[in-house]
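To whoever is on call:

I kicked off a structure prediction for a single chain this morning and the downstream step that reads the tokens threw a length-mismatch warning. I double-checked the sequence; it's 288 residues and nothing unusual in it as far as I can see. Pasting both halves so you can look.
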Amino acid sequence: MTQPTLVPRALPHQFTHLTTALDLAAHGVPVLPLRAGKVPFGNCPACSDNACGGRPNMKTPGPCDCPRPCHAWAAATTDHATLTGPGWASAWRQAGAVAYHPGGTNLTVVDLDDAHAIAWARATLPATRAVPTTRGEHWIYRGSMQSANAVRLGVDIKSTMSYARWLGPGTGTMAPLPHTVRALVASKPSPVRPITAPLPTADGECRHRTPVFLERGIAMAEQQITAATSSVHATVYRTFLAVLSTHGGCGCLTDTHMQRLFAAAQTKGETARHCTDAWTNALTRLGM
């Protein structure tokens, strides 16, 4: 099967964000509008708390009939009628940028945030298409994988269940996704560190390791975040703090649990960086 490609030409500055999005979509790249600050448009009231029928965290979008781009990365589409429809008109008028879903077009973006990260990539990874960013570069490879933040200092992976800002087609020949990049996520240590030994109960078992207890706690936290209608930043931080204070003392939390909470926050318009900052601040407050 022919691999999808990004738009092979630069777009003039006078083109609107919608025109850019339509050009990308015509090349098979799923796109969505971003607000100023690189943030997706937040959930609309009809989709609050997945009332539209979407599955939790929009990992597998459900039968949502809402016309607005309200599901962060899962709103990315190549459908011309959707992109130009009345439900998206106001979003494009307010948009500060265009984003695309790399995993949706079988691509992976290695987001290099500074000069040190770029130097590491040049010494470690095979050359591929590179796109300049505000502080660093996006290296784009053919092939999709799990997304992850902070796989090493200054390096994020954006592919499935994630979005990247469109900053132009870049330069260079796109290379296949190397094992070195996949290994970054596979070997990424969990940021959830216990502050004490497992907490024993009367029968000597750690109650936090009970699957039902932990699953209920994570599900409640996801619901609290997605139900927020205001003060989303504060809600996300308080929820992270509550989860860590209840479940973070015995080492039962995993990257999977953390990513579920991050995904819930991102459906409300939080950026990956805001999620990481809120999680780190909660860890610090709890002495972890």
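Update from on-call: the warning came from a stale cache, not from the record. Cleared it. Sanity check on the structure: The two ends are 48 Å apart (CA to CA).
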